[in-house]
Design goal:
Distance between the termini: 86 Å
Strand content: 5-15%
Radius of gyration: 45 Å
Structural class: alpha/beta
Strand order of the largest sheet: 5-4-3-6-9-8-10-7
Number of strands: 12
Shape: elongated
Low-confidence stretches: 334-339, 538-559
Mean pLDDT: 76
Largest sheet: 8 strands, mixed
């Protein structure tokens, strides 16, 4: 809240707080010049006064502040101090209002400090007629100085307006007039909501009565028209022009000229500052002298007035004295006769006295009776007033009840009317639905024909592509250059794989056998695959020992993971790892649950209900939800949920962000988390009772070099490969995954260049490229409610996933894999006939061309591990991935499956593999029979 002192900032701040914006905890109290309260934190006021003193200024000093006196370090300290004050005054608040007129002078520091901490800033400028502000300041005898003129007040108003307008010009802001707040506060609040694209938590119906009682127009002691501002000699010129300019900005008419006017005034004031200082100092001296002379004149006037009064009294006394003398002479003449008359009168008076004594005695008796009656009358009056107050309260309550009842009747009438309208709409919708079903059936038949045609066209295109490729292979130039390619490949083989290959020859079966195996791997997997296989063979030999121990041959390895199985198979750790999903770990650690929403209201009720039913204690969950600009009521749902359920959790934070994608939203939450384990999750899923407890147990028990643990999705899981023994996987889906925060931060977090549909694969590859392992835990499950009917999302999924594949190939793929990606997208663009799909391919290709160099030149992997690509996917598909998994069936409801394993030779390696792979199955009713065949 920005604005000059006495400009209505207090009133507007209180209105916004009653609409639902939180106020600071420690507010300054009310005062004689602001009976309703200031609504600003005392600590912030004191800090601003300290800064002003540091810059040789004060709150009533209009001169521009000289920030060049502050070092860079001091500026950073000031921003840090401001942020600490705001966070301490408004802890865990999602919407709050900060107000102090001095903020105008330090608006730049404020905005930078809050934005750097991820706090969204929405400036509101409150302004008022400068003549009213000046009059109000002149009457603040406690704080305003006699030496100051109205020119000082005008310049102070001007400095606050110019600073506030200049520092907020680059931001979306609202400009509010004090007059408009008093006359139509609802209109001003609506204007603020419209400017910022937001809604306050409370409705007008909830707050109208309290705000109307608060905005008492009688507290406005100074009212001046705009014409008076333009005619006042102290305000004519700069102040008047600035006031007109701000009014234009508020009405959005002539904003460019208005900003130019304000910039011109600012530059003129800066250049005229020395002259203004000298002129105002002379004016202050003259004003002080004038005040002193006025005091002397008032004193003389009092003395002269007193002297005249004394003279009038003397004249009157003289006249009275003369009259008294004349009366005395007349009395002396008739004094003798009067004495006789007085004697007779005395006798008569004594008789009257006796009579009066009797009457007085009777009167006293009557007075006592009257006093008693008066006391009784007062009691009766008091009882009557109490009854009147009680009756008035009952009448008022009846009136309120009547008003409420009338409102309820109107609401019921509206609901009845709405219900009838809904019934009519339902009837219409039913008719439209039946027509839509008929149209859909017709379209389905049409689409089936189109799909068949597309399939035939695609088969024809691939045939042409294969023919072209074969013709290229049979060309004369390809055959002539074959020797040169072989020499080039041998050179690359020696450079890339030489050291490891020579070691393999020395440790292995000799030159001929080793070279033959190497060439076989090279032909199928290329140089990078050959080097990875050689390293895997050497590592396996170091772990296992002798080559003739019965282990599988190097040429039969199906994954680089195989050499590491020896560390795991049949160990106590591995068996307990499987059991961890069923047990509750001692001393639950706190975790963060991170969710990102975008128009997700329809999923939230199911999501939160399943979260509340977890066996993992919700008081150990720090819930952080980042909304990416929802417009479907998601924010209101989240605010209501936090208000009602925040006590269930250790903490709940609601954050807002521009929609920069899935990864950017979770990155914000992860970096604000204080926990080592962060559960990244979609909100369109449902946790099973043991989901969080099971996955956290695995995270706690696992090695420090494991960075993530992926939960299995029901009813259908990702078809990607994972090792059935070690549970290692090449990439993790982040629809629901537990991350180790330290590993996440070490590799730099999500890649912001990928908006959606591939950021989880890229982060997985970067984690593995930096030496971290990834686990897939198939028996810890969630239900993922994928909306297959949402046709608006499908084109984005298609273009996003293709662009991500091409970009990830640019960073992690071999040259052959990058060329393969280029060929895939070019083939799709040249053969696709469907306009919508072709548009998605074009968007993907454009995104690829835009960001390709970034992926080629940054975040390259530091360790040599394979990064699989399979067309537009990232790994081979496993059998059985499309079989739905239900978590509702108990052991007694599903048939028992017997797995029979026959032993082989003396080596236990294969037997341990077989047993462990059975242990890792998710089917819950298995018996494993081991048959010893006597060999």
């Amino acid at each position: 809240m920005l604005g000059m002192h006495r400009s209505g900032t207090s009133a507007l701040t209180r209105v916004l707080s009653l609409m639902g914006a939180d106020l600071p905890k420690n507010l300054m109290g009310s005062s004689a010049d602001n009976e309703k309260g200031h609504w600003e934190p005392q600590r912030l006021v004191d800090y601003h006064d300290q800064l002003l003193e540091e810059l040789d200024s004060s709150w009533h000093d209009w001169r521009p502040l000289d920030f060049t006196k502050l070092t860079t370090a001091r500026r950073e300290t000031i921003q840090s101090d401001i942020l600490e004050i705001v966070n301490s005054e408004c802890p865990d608040s999602e919407l709050f209002v900060i107000k102090d007129p001095r903020v105008c002078r330090f608006a730049g520091f404020f905005i930078d400090a809050l934005q750097q901490d991820g706090i969204g800033v929405k400036p509101v400028l409150s302004f008022r007629n400068p003549l009213e502000v000046s009059r109000s300041l002149e009457e603040r005898t406690n704080n305003w100085f006699d030496k100051y003129t109205r020119t000082d007040a005008a310049l102070l108003w001007l400095s606050h307006i110019l600073c506030a307008e200049r520092e907020t010009r680059a931001h979306k802001r609202a400009i509010v007039g004090y007059d408009e707040v008093l006359s139509d506060w609802k209109g001003e609040v609506k204007s603020i909501q419209k400017q910022f694209g937001m809604e306050f938590p409370h409705s007008f119906r909830e707050t109208e009565k309290e705000i109307n009682e608060f905005l008492d127009a009688r507290l406005r002691h100074h009212t001046r028209s705009d014409e008076e501002v333009l005619l006042d000699p102290h305000l004519r010129g700069w102040a008047g022009d600035a006031y007109s300019a701000v009014n234009k900005l508020r009405s959005a008419k002539g904003t460019r000229n208005a900003k130019e006017t304000l910039d011109h005034i600012q530059s003129v004031i800066l250049s005229a500052k020395p002259v203004l200082n000298a002129v105002l100092e002379e004016a202050h001296l003259a004003n002080r002298s004038l005040v002193e002379r006025q005091a002397d004149v008032e004193q003389l006037q009092k003395e002269v007035s007193g002297k005249k009064a004394i003279e009038r009294n003397l004249t009157e006394l003289q006249c009275e004295l003369e009259k008294a003398i004349a009366q005395q002479k007349a009395l002396e003449a008739g004094f003798g006769g009067l004495i006789d008359a007085k004697d007779q009168a005395l006798v008569d008076a004594q008789a009257d006295v006796e009579q009066l004594k009797k009457e007085v005695s009777a009167k006293k008796s009557n007075e006592r009776k009257l006093s008693k009656l008066q006391v009784e009358h007062k009691n009766v009056v008091a009882q009557q007033k109490a009854l009147e107050a009680e009756f008035k309260g009952q009448i008022d309550a009846k009136d309120r009840a009547l008003v409420d009842a009338q409102a309820d009747v109107k609401q019921l009438q509206k609901e009845v009317s709405g219900k009838k309208a809904i019934e009519r709409q339902l009837t219409e919708l039913q008719c439209e639905h039946e027509k839509g079903i008929a149209r859909q059936k017709a379209l389905e038949a049409e689409f089936e024909g189109q799909i068949d045609a597309k399939d035939r066209a695609l088969e024809l295109a691939w045939g042409k592509l294969e023919t072209t490729h074969q013709a290229y292979r049979n060309s004369t130039s390809w055959k002539i250059t074959k020797p040169f390619r072989i020499l080039k490949d041998i050179g690359r083989l020696i450079v890339l794989c030489g050291p490891n290959l020579f070691e393999l020859i020395n440790r292995g079966d000799g030159l001929n056998s080793s070279v033959a195996k190497a060439m076989e791997v090279w032909r199928s997997n290329g140089f990078v695959g050959l080097n990875s296989a050689v390293k895997a063979i050497l590592l396996r030999q170091r772990l296992v020992g002798k080559k003739d121990d019965g282990q599988p041959n190097a040429s039969n390895f199906s994954s680089y993971i195989i050499p590491y199985r020896q560390e795991v198979l049949g160990s106590k750790w591995h068996i307990s790892y499987r059991a961890n999903s069923k047990t509750k770990s001692e001393g639950n650690t706190n975790i963060t649950v991170s969710a990102v929403t975008y128009n997700s209201k329809k999923w939230l009720e199911i999501f939160f209900k399943s979260l509340e039913k977890q066996s993992f204690p919700t008081e150990n969950i720090n819930l952080i939800i980042v909304d990416n600009g929802s417009s479907d009521g998601t924010n209101k749902f989240l605010i209501d949920y936090k208000e009602k359920n925040s006590k269930r959790y250790n903490s709940v934070k609601l954050l807002k962000l521009k929609n920069q994608g899935f990864g950017s939203g979770h990155d914000m939450a992860i970096r604000k988390s204080r926990d080592e384990f962060v559960l990244v999750t979609n909100v369109d899923l449902e946790f099973h009772k043991e989901s969080i407890q099971g996955i956290v147990n695995h995270g706690i028990a696992d090695d420090l070099n494991v960075a993530s643990w992926e939960l299995r999705q029901c009813p259908y899981e990702h078809p990607k490969y994972y090792d059935p023994v070690t549970l290692d996987t090449s990439w993790s889906s982040h629809a629901c995954v537990l991350l180790r925060k330290s590993a996440y931060l070490r590799v730099g977090g999500y890649e912001t260049k990928i908006f959606m549909y591939g950021e989880d694969v890229e982060l997985s590859y970067r984690l593995r490229g930096n030496g971290f392992g990834l686990k897939y835990i198939p028996w810890v499950t969630v239900t993922h409610h994928v909306d297959l009917e949402d046709q608006a999302v499908r084109p984005h999924q298609l273009s996003g996933s293709i662009a991500a594949n091409l970009l990830i190939r640019s960073r992690y793929g071999t040259s052959e894999e990058r060329e393969e990606g280029q060929a895939i997208i070019e083939g799709l663009l040249s053969t696709e006939q469907d306009a919508n799909r072709l548009n998605s391919f074009q968007i993907a290709y454009s995104k690829f061309q835009e960001d390709k160099e970034h992926f080629v030149n940054s975040n390259r992997p530091t360790s040599m591990v394979p990064f699989p690509f399979a067309g537009l996917d990232y790994d081979m598909c496993r059998d059985g991935y499309n079989v739905p998994l239900s978590r509702d069936a108990g052991k007694g409801a599903i048939p028992k499956v017997s797995i029979i394993t026959r032993t082989h030779g003396q080596n236990l390696y294969y037997l341990r593999e077989a047993i462990t792979s059975v242990l890792n199955q998710t089917y819950e009713n298995i018996e494993h029979i081991i048959v010893e065949d006597g060999t």
